Amino acid sequence: MTFHRLFPRASILLLAFWLGIGPALGQGLLRDAEIEHGLAQLAAPILRAAGLAPDRVKILLVDDQSLNAFVISNDAIYIHSGLIARAQSAAMIQAVIAHEAAHIVNGHISRRMTNLDHARNAAGLGLALAAAAAVAGQGDAARGIALGTGSAAQRSFFSHTRAEESSADQSGIRFMASAGVAPAAMRDLLAIFSGQELLSAGRQDPYLRSHPLSRDRMRAIDGFVAQYKGGEVLPQTEYWFARLRGKLSAFTRSPKWTLAQAPSDPVGDAGLMRQAIARHRLAQTPAALALLDQLQGQRPEDAFLYDLRGQMLIEARDFNAAARAYQQAARLAPGNALILAGLGRAQLATGAPAEARATLERSRDQDFRNSAMMRDLALAYARTQKPGLAGMITAERFALMGRMKDAGLHARRALGQLPEGSAPWQRAQDVLIASERAANGR
Length: 442
Hints:
The protein is mostly helical. The chain folds into two domains: 4-226, no CATH class; 254-439, Serine Threonine Protein Phosphatase 5, Tetratricopeptide repeat, CATH 1.25.40. Helix content is 62%, strand content 5%. The chain has helices at residues 10-18, 33-49, 81-86, 90-105, 108-113, 119-124, 152-158, 162-178, 184-191, 206-210, 215-226, 235-252, 255-261, 268-281, 285-298, 303-315, 319-332, 337-349, 353-366, 371-383, 387-400, 404-415, 423-439; strands at residues 4-5, 29-31, 58-62, 69-73, 76-80. Strand 4 (69-73) and strand 5 (76-80) form a beta hairpin. It starts with a strand and ends with a helix.
């Protein structure tokens, strides 16, 4: 699937409406199959040690260069891209995941949700808590998904208490030790924020505002870390860290900078991929594909390299070749929702809307957080003479983006085209109710 920015305001914005806080434009998630796979590889041993199922907790990347990570539901951990860029090892990212997983396991999120009278309404829309940068946007309508004026309700929901932080630190370090990851990485991670507590709140990274750091807390962490020894560097973990970090860098840094730095990348695969992406971004697609050929010669069964090839080809408007690349990616990773979304887009571009519709429906069944996929699915419905379903999916997409007025308009239109009482009709009705509540500030 294309590496792109989405705006997954979803239920966090609905949650904001229930709290009486209005949304503003902001940044969203960076959705990419390879990056999310890499994060899943880092997370899996930590989540298992925490007693969580790795296939039930997604690790999602927020498009924000500030340093932050947070959880707002029990099924996803959000990490800012800036934190990935600053991390020096896979273990540091695993420390982030361990700490946030501890907030889930220790019931910190669940306790907050029980205090939100309308949480059931947000969940009932079927869009779950899929927000991004909520903490970063606190009190700042120009950054992240700004949730308004920093009300008492908002602060209560997003701020962790000292007791919660101490509990999450201790549990997270225990998870790391159990997973064979060096607990000292937790201390290394928090050292990034050293001295920031002396800055004004507006200049601090949002992690420090939502996860208060104090000398007492650091001393406690030192004590926790001292209880555990060892931990090993796993080559496979470091490999995926290098790939996901390299891909993120190649798509967000200057191509010229990437071409100067990538040849010296200690992980050769990551270096070749970075160069290929940089060449593609410079509109040198033949050179990019040649580099990708070299990399695929070393890893012929790597689904994510076919996914990247598909992206390059579809952006170069070679739609048939893109569809073939995505088909190979989907064959190698049949359950990957983002790869299926890329394949569906390519099928649409080649003039096969019925095939695209089936592919995109499979993608949506596995991952509803992808507004680009929903846009393509609506188009596939429209091109196969299903206007009611197209309107319903469009309404859900606008709700996912936080554009509740537009969501309501499309939901109302879809209701007139769908069989009353059917499952799609009920989904459109849910969106309409949510949009009316948002309009009324409820």
